[in-house]
Amino acid sequence: MNEDLDDPRLTAVGLFAEAYTGLMNRLAAQIEEHRLSQVEFEVLMRLARSPGHRLRMTDLAGQTTLSTSGVTRVVDRMERSGLVRREACPSDRRSSYAVITDTGMQRLSDVLPGHLELVQRWYVGLLPETKLTELLDALRTIRDAVNPCATAGSAESALPA
């Protein structure tokens, strides 16, 4: 038998994937009750938490699991639903911003209480505060290494290193 099958690195990746998948499955049904997909919820969250409640479309793609064309399709769909709007970038005619609308903010406000309850029950509430802080620090280290664009255009990317 190949000794690599017992490598703890495989266990680390497997546990991470299992935890993520399980958590997302727990959260998905509640998000969908509010007529949102998981990716639409993620887009609304990222826009609501960004300076001016907006992000350049390329930055939004960098912060999500979507390609640039995927972000365009999602924003198109969300724009038709009145959740976001596009604004031209005044300094670069080739770029545009996705901006959360009042309707999008209201939908997000409707989703968040139940979402936070589930996040508490199935994620942060399972760990003592010190372990949660360590986990968040570790996740940021990994995220920054594997996805350096993850905070592009956000308040976090504007913080000094």
From TrEMBL:
<dbReference type="GO" id="GO:0003700">
    <property type="term" value="F:DNA-binding transcription factor activity"/>
</dbReference>
<dbReference type="Pfam" id="PF01047">
    <property type="entry name" value="MarR"/>
</dbReference>
<feature type="domain" description="HTH marR-type">
    <location>
        <begin position="1"/>
        <end position="144"/>
    </location>
</feature>
<keyword id="KW-0238">DNA-binding</keyword>
<protein>
    <submittedName>
        <fullName>DNA-binding transcriptional regulator, MarR family</fullName>
    </submittedName>
</protein>
<dbReference type="GO" id="GO:0006950">
    <property type="term" value="P:response to stress"/>
</dbReference>
<dbReference type="InterPro" id="IPR039422">
    <property type="entry name" value="MarR/SlyA-like"/>
</dbReference>
<dbReference type="InterPro" id="IPR036390">
    <property type="entry name" value="WH_DNA-bd_sf"/>
</dbReference>
<dbReference type="GO" id="GO:0003677">
    <property type="term" value="F:DNA binding"/>
</dbReference>
<dbReference type="InterPro" id="IPR036388">
    <property type="entry name" value="WH-like_DNA-bd_sf"/>
</dbReference>
<dbReference type="InterPro" id="IPR000835">
    <property type="entry name" value="HTH_MarR-typ"/>
</dbReference>
